[in-house]
Amino acid sequence: MHSFLFKRKNEAAQGACRLVGSGENILVWEDPWVLELPLFRPQPRNAHEPRQCLAVAQLMNHDRTDWNIGLVKQLFNEDSVRAILNIPKWFSGNEDKWIWLHSSNGVLTAKSAFKQIAKEAYDIPINQSLGRIWKTRIHDRLKMHLWRLAADLLPTKDTLTRFVSSLDPICVLCDQECEDAVHLFWDCPMARALWFGCRWSIRTDQFPITNATQLVIMLMSPPNEWGIKSEDKEGFILIGSLILDQIWKCRNLKVHEGCNASMEHLERRIAVLGSEYHLANSITLCPPSTVKKTCWQKPPINCLKINCDAAVGNSYSSVAIVARDWRGTVVLAVSQKVNTTIPLQAEAEAIAWASRIAANLGVDQICIESDSKTCMDHIRGKLTMLLMSLLGGHSEIDFGVLLI
Q1: Single GO molecular-function term (predicted)?
Q2: Residue 230 gets which letter from DSSP?
C-alpha cells in the first residue's frame, strides 16, 4: 500500500492544507492555506505582475490579531480576498501546521489516503460494511481471504484468462461452468452443498448474486430470510468464512496437485476447525492481565528441555523437536511428517513424539514445552499417567506451555 501511495502522492497532496497559526512558516503563493479556494491557493489581483516572496504573517497587522485588509485587497482578487477574510480567528502564538481534510481529526493515515485516492482517481466504490471484516473475531488469515474475495483479488480462472488466453476457463470442481468467484463460492454444486449442509441450511439458488462483494456483504450482514439470530451471527461469520476458505483450498488442491477432496472430508474439516476456534476462544476470553506471556528459558542444571511444535499443510503436517541442556546448548534437532491436517492433532503428535524421544535419551529430569495450551492442559490432567507410563522410569517430568 505504501508504494501505491507514493506513486499517487500528488493526488494525496490535494487533500492537505496549512492551518494558519503564526503565519511565519506558510508561503503565500506556494503553500495551500485558503480552504475555500481551488487547490487552497489564493490568486493575485493582477496576474501579470511579478509575485513577491511573502509569508502569511506579513499579511497580518502589527499585533498579529487580524489581517491587514488594505494589503490583502491590494494583492489578491475578490474571491481570494473574501476567502482569506473568512479564515477563522487564530492565536498568534500557535504554530502553523498541516491538516488532512479527508479525516475527521485532520490526521493523515495510509488508510484515509488510500480510500480518498481510490474514490477520486479510480472511482472504486468503498463499501463501509466491508470494514466489518477487520472487526470480526476470526483468524487474520480468514479476514484477509474475505477481503481479497470482496476486492476481486483472488486469481480465479476468469481473471487469469485475461492474461493467458489459452487457459481452460471451466471450473475444476464441477467441470460444467466457467470459473469466477460467484460460481466457485456460491453457484458451484460443491459450494451449494456446503452452504446447505451448514446448520442454517442456506439455499444459494434462492439468493442470486452478481459479484463477490455481495457475497461478503451477505456474510457480514445476513438477510433476515436466513433466520440467523443476533447471538448466532458471530458463529455464522466464522462458519461462512471457513466454507469459503475450504472451497478455495479444495480448488487449489485440484488445480495444482490433481487431488480431489470428498464432501464428507470438507464438512468434517469445517466442523473441526469451527470447534477448535470455539475451544481456543473460550480459553483466551480471560482478562488480558491474567495471561502471562513468557519467553524461552534455560532448564535447571542436569535437566533437559524439549521444545516441540507443528506446522499444518494441505495434505500433511510437519512436527519438529529441539532439545537443549541446562547451558542452552542444542543437543538434538529432528523433524518428520505426520498424516494429519488437523492443527490440534498435529500439536498432540509433536508432544507424543517428544515424549517417546525423551524415553530413549536416558535423562532423569525432563521438561517438555509446547505452545499448544489446549494440549498441555489435557496432559496435566487426564493424560499425565498415560505419558508417565510411556516415559518408563523417569521420576521427574514437567509439561509446560510457552505463550509467545
Answers
A1: RNA-DNA hybrid ribonuclease activity
A2: G
pLDDT in tens, 80-136: 999 999 887 666 678 888 888 877 787 878 777 777 766 665 454 556 667 788 889
3-state secondary structure of 262: coil
Residues 276, 348: Cα–Cα separation, whole Å: 13
What is the gyration radius of the CA atoms in the chain, in angstroms?
A: 32
Domain boundaries, the chain: 2-121, 128-284, 303-401
Residue 43 to residue 298: CA distance in whole angstroms:
71
Beta pairing class for 317-324 and 330-338? antiparallel
- Rounded Cα distance, 118 and 268, in Å: 41
Q: What is the pLDDT of residue 137?
A: 87
- The topology (CATH level 3) of 303-401 is Nucleotidyltransferase; domain 5 (3.30.420)
- Write the single-letter amino acid at 9: K
Q: What is the DSSP letter of 55?
A: B
C-alpha cell at 22: 503564526
